Amino acid sequence: MFYLILKFSKLLTKLFQTKLLNTRVDIKSDIETISRIPAVAHILEIVCKTTGMGFAAVARVTTEKWIACAVRDEINFGLVPGGELTLETTICNEIREHRQPVVIDHVAEDEHFANHHTPLTYGFQSYISIPIILKNGDFFGTLCAIDPKPAKLNNPTITGMFKMFADLIAFHLDAMEEIAESEERLQLEKETSELREQFIAILGHDLKNPVNAISNSSQLLNRMDLDYRGQRLVNIIHDSAFKMTGLIENMLDFASGRLGGGISLTRTHYSNLDTILDQVISEMQIISPERRLMANYDFKHPIYADGKRIAQLFGNLLANAVKYSPAEALIEIVADSDHNGFVLRVSNPGKPIPEEVIERLFQPFSRGEVSPDQKGLGLGLYISFEIAKAHGGTLSVSSCEEQTCFTLNIPAQ
Hints:
The protein is α+β, with helices and mostly antiparallel strands and 413 residues long. The chain has helices spanning 2-22, 27-35, 39-51, 92-98, 117-122, 156-222, 228-260, 274-287, 307-323, 355-358, 380-390; strands at 55-61, 66-73, 84-85, 102-104, 126-133, 139-147, 268-270, 292-299, 303-305, 330-338, 341-348, 394-399, 404-411.
């Protein structure tokens, strides 16, 4: 148990760290992401061939750094992916602030940039840089190109091409970010789900022994000569232990089904199941002696099933019928078998189940409308459905103003 608590604590820490890291700028990750976009290399090649410029790059521009993520260098400018320029020496730093394209055909003839420190520092005469803006509005960097010779860049064809390529790069970055976040969320959800189910399984095992001890002790006390008050207390203990045992079994089966691949069965051939079914009914009558239960059996054909699992399923259906029917209601149990298979029906009058509830009734933790004294985990019908499925059968429900009926159908084998 301590191990699971520690593991859960580590999982929460991992979740917090993941969210924290996602808020930071990870330059290395950005370079790797750009390198995984196949179109980038083709974009830089087209840019150079179309404009005649010798250097093109996709740059990551932050408040602190200018980093080359992808490069095509035909003029020996000297930058490679991961290479860095001093941020303040670049025009991209200005673009980060105003988020507008900068296009220069000929630096020496440009009124604004003729004496600008950037071309003086790096020795280029032609320059174009288009901002790359992500879907959330964040500024990623620029798609830029330079050359020591003048070039005809400031025209709709060239600027339109650059803007289209910048948008395409932004689209890929957004898509890859969404995929990465989805995979990360799925992994965290998987780990959380597995941890929760391990916790349920271990908790169930830890609870089983003391509950068995309580149940056995109540049975021993029941054999003693007790007064009315003592007998009443013993019945309360026995009733509570019975309910707790059912909850624990459902918890264990839920965890086993999720972690182990389904409900396990140990099948046997039965000429009939009346003893098993009567035992469940007797147990329910001890717990609820005032309730009216009527059973009719007609077994004409052997049944190949797991008797313990059938008893568990029947107990869940019977407890459900008692819980959701009026105190004076008659609960009817019908079981029969023939060459087609085994059928078990549990019917009770009561408030009809709404259609939208029926659609999810056999899902885990799903429950109908309940009163404050009808609380539970919502696993009984889910486990019953899984038991039916493990037998190759079905568990269905019909509900109307007259009655609600659950039907188990297991085909002959």
